[in-house]
Amino acid sequence: MSSDAIPASKCAHLVEFKRFLANTAEKAAAISEEVVSRSCVTRTANETYKVSGEERHAELVAAIWKQLESRGCPLHFRMKLLHRCTQQLEQDLCFAKECEVTVEGPPQYDLLKLQKFVASEFERYILKLTDNSEVDRLKDFGDEAEPENECHLKKEPMHTSAAVKNKPRKMEDRCVCLDRFGEMYELSDKNSRFFGVFDGHSGSLSATYATSQLPQLLADQLKANPEPAAFSSDFYRNAFESSFLLADERFTQKKITSGTTSVCALVTKDQLYIAWVGDSKALLVGKRTQLQLVKPHKPENPDERKRIEAAGGTVLYAQGQWRVNGILNVARSIGDYSLEAVIAEPDFVDVQLNEAHDFLVLGTDGLWDHVPESHIIETVYESLADPSMKLDDISKLLIEAAKERDSQDNITAVVVLLKPRNQIEYL
């Protein structure tokens, strides 16, 4: 084989990528008459927020990654496309005055206009790659060569998520699942994974904000330490705390009446880190372990009640639940700027992972308040053992179990595998 020959596996990836580019071009041509220009109009003021220069990069990364996933970009090419497209759109955004909102000082951007700009410019970027002059360059967008066994493992789905609006008028839950978190944000630990579940209230904007901003803020904190070997439990605790508090501070400045619970998981090779505010939960499951990692922040909890009252708030029983100032039924959240006694300081736990740990389940109270943990564990194990069951259907089964038990709330469930599916044995 000549030195510049392309290995068979890489050639197969390239064929898949060319097919993706061709399909994108075909779809773009089919709807060309319906494409809205970049000068777009937001729907209503309460469905968007202003994005500052400090927040812009995180929103771009989140929006571009969503485009890569929703358009079915081959996994082997997503990461370099993300980084190169982000770099290009950062430059292009300087000239996209239609995305800006009129404010004094540095430019700020309307979220919906920014997302539409990303959708339009991402497609433009992809279509440029279909030009004949770009053919020889396409292989440069692929991941670096890996051993065949590692490549195979990375293709195995390692998480599943599902969410449903259910009975409420609006869907205010959000979740983020980043199996390639370390690569996306260029961390020293390229294999780290990040998952978050957010239960919004008084609108979904705080939850939406957290899904895009928290991963970036946490990554920034993790990259602040130049010596990964020196990472300790306290380092991760402080990284999560700083991320939550900064997200809350920045969102609070927008004066939007919205808040969200948050439960986030950072998974490394042998450690699990969990941080949370509010009552969304995380259940760690293994052959000898069924551990609910979250102690919910509820106003009636003696420690929380004492803290709330010391801050000048009250805990009142209203509408069948204990609430801060008779309004909010959680004692901690991101957002809720009008409730000073409600704080965003997270609690934190870390667990050393071993071969006995099988999976992690994250969910909002629409799941946990109605489905016993024993049923969740049994459902996941039985489903994983059934070769005919798709991984994506497992989270849907948990949603259905909550609905069958009369859950009236939005419901979100995320199942994170801590080892390949074929290594998880049914209890």
Automatic annotation (TrEMBL):
PANTHER family: PROTEIN PHOSPHATASE. GO terms for molecular function: protein serine/threonine phosphatase activity. This is PPM-type phosphatase domain-containing protein. SMART domains: PP2Cc (SM00332). Residues 158-418 form the PPM-type phosphatase domain. SUPFAM superfamilies: PP2C-like.
